[in-house]
Structure formats: structure tokens, C-alpha cells
Design brief:
Layout lengths: L1 E6 L7 H12 L6 E3 L13 H7 L6 H14 L2 E10 L5 E9 L5 E5 L20 E3 L5 E4 L8 H9 L4 E5 L7 H12 L2 E5 L2 E6 L2 E6 L3 E3 L5 E4 L6 E6 L9 E3 L2 E2 L12
Parallel strand pairs: 1-2, 2-3, 7-8, 8-9
Antiparallel strand pairs: 1-14, 3-4, 4-5, 6-7, 9-12, 10-11, 12-13, 15-16
Helix pairs in contact: 1-3, 4-5
């Protein structure tokens, strides 16, 4: 199957511009699954909760879902994208979430478990847990968001549930995150798709620089495709998802059956 990551520079609080730019970039794309950055429709450096509320959406509703669902159907592909989620069933909580939208109209939501830096001022910690669902053609997909990379338990949980691909929408600012994902893919023997944003974003006294470097990694930690630290674009590669089902390291070693959980203190 063909898998892709998209990298671009969203505008803060300008959902209309961001959706228009993403629509342009995704128009006619030839892939089976594409991953977009974290909070790609809203920007990232919020100064107030009111700003965040102005761009948040209820899952399954709103302009972002309408546009992305249409693109998934038109391009016959699965789309994973990051958005600010408003949950009115839990007392108007805000979550940093990612959505997997399939061309048949089915969808799933993951809420970021490990909040980074000033996200803790505005978002609630995710409550979905880590789960595996299906993308186009039944590929087994898990989702992480950005700083979840720091915690090996997150990706290991997805791998133990049978994930073949781990989709990783991101707004990475720390310089070693992409290298850490090499280890995450290798130790779990899964494909990973990290879609990062580029550029600087400032608001009030706060400014962040994002590292780009979106990448697709193999179950052996090989870089199959990557973008630079500054370019906008989409990169695509052909993979065989079933390669992630093979956990053999040598003919005498298996990444999962050799585990000794009775000795681990977690």
C-alpha cells in the first residue's frame, strides 16, 4: 500500500486558510493513507482558552471534519489529522486530538495522553487510551500525538495490540524527537509515520520554532521517506504492512516473546 506524510506551515487561528491550503496539497493525492500534523487546522501557540475555543470542533462535526471527510472520499484514502476537540458531554472539555477518517465514512478519535509544555494550560489530558483501529483495506492503525513519543509505553501498548502502522501527527520542537521515533519503530517492529509542521509561530510573549523533518520509518528503523526541516510537501512510499507482523529479530530472538514482564517494574 501507499502511505504518506504531509508537512506545511499552518496559520494560527486561521482555520479557513489552513483548510484551503491542506485541500490544495491533498487534491488528487495518490495514496492509501496520509498523516497530517498536530493541530493542523488551528495552529498551536494559544494565548488564551478563548482563542482555543474559537477554533475547536466537536468530533464528527464542524468544517474540518467536512473538508477532510470529503477529501478522504474523493481520494479514496484514509486521512489522519490533528485538531482541537471540544467535548460538551464532559463539561466543555478541550482535547488535543487526532482523527482517522476512512474513505467509507468511518472514523475514530484519539486524545493526546501526554500534554507538552503550555498545552497543560488549555487542554485536558486524553482519556481514550491507546487503541488500534482499521484504516483503508483493513490495515491496523494506532495513533500517537507529538510528545507521546517520549513515553515508550505508549507505542509498545499499540504494538502489543497488533498495530502495523503508528500515525504520529506532531508539532515537534525538541531536536531529538525524530531520532527517538527510530528507536520506537525498531523496538516495536512497526512502521511509523511522523507528520510535523514547519516554521515559527508567535503569540504574545510566546514563540516556538518547529523542526519539520517529517518521516516514514520501517519496522527496522529505516528512513523510507523524509522531508527537510523547511519544505512544505507530501512524501509517499510503498510499504507492505504485514512486515510489521513479523517480530523476529534473529532466528532465536523475538521482540515480543522474549520479553520478561515479570521482571519489569512499571
Amino acid at each position: 500500500m501507499q502511505v504518506s506524510v504531509l508537512q506545511f506551515q499552518p496559520r494560527l487561528l486561521d482555520k479557513a486558510h489552513n483548510l484551503n491550503r491542506l485541500s490544495q496539497m491533498l487534491s488528487g493525492v495518490k495514496t492509501d493513507l496520509v498523516v497530517l500534523p498536530e493541530l493542523c487546522t488551528s495552529g498551536y501557540v494559544f494565548e488564551t482558552a478563548e482563542e482555543l475555543l474559537s477554533v475547536a470542533e466537536i468530533a464528527g462535526e464542524g468544517e474540518s471534519f467536512r473538508v477532510m471527510s470529503s477529501l478522504a472520499s474523493q481520494n479514496d484514502c484514509s486521512i489522519v489529522f490533528g485538531f482541537a476537540e471540544l467535548d460538551l458531554t464532559a463539561g466543555a472539555k478541550l482535547f488535543n486530538s487526532s482523527a482517522l477518517l476512512n474513505p467509507d465514512g468511518s472514523w475514530n478519535i484519539y486524545r493526546k495522553a501526554h500534554l507538552f509544555y503550555r498545552e497543560k494550560l488549555f487542554f485536558s489530558p486524553g482519556d481514550t487510551g491507546f487503541f488500534v483501529t482499521e484504516g483503508k483495506n483493513g490495515v491496523k492503525v494506532g495513533m500517537l500525538i507529538c510528545f507521546d513519543w517520549q513515553f515508550p509505553e505508549a507505542m509498545r501498548t499499540l504494538a502489543l495490540q497488533g498495530a502495523q502502522l503508528v500515525c504520529h501527527p506532531s508539532n515537534l520542537v525538541l531536536p531529538w524527537a525524530q531520532k527517538a521515533m527510530t528507536t520506537r519503530s525498531l523496538e516495536n517492529r512497526v512502521f511509523s509515520l511522523t507528520a510535523n509542521r514547519i516554521g515559527k509561530e508567535g503569540n504574545g510573549d510566546n514563540e516556538l520554532s518547529f523542526t519539520g523533518g517529517s518521516q516514514i520509518l520501517s519496522p527496522r528503523g529505516e528512513v523510507l521517506a523524509a522531508l527537510s526541516s523547511t519544505e512544505e510537501g507530501i512524501t509517499t512510499v510503498e510499504i507492505a504492512p504485514q512486515e510489521a507482523d513479523n517480530k523476529q529479530v534473529t532466528d532465536r530472538n523475538n521482540a515480543f516473546t522474549d520479553r520478561r514482564p515479570e521482571l519489569y517494574k512499571l
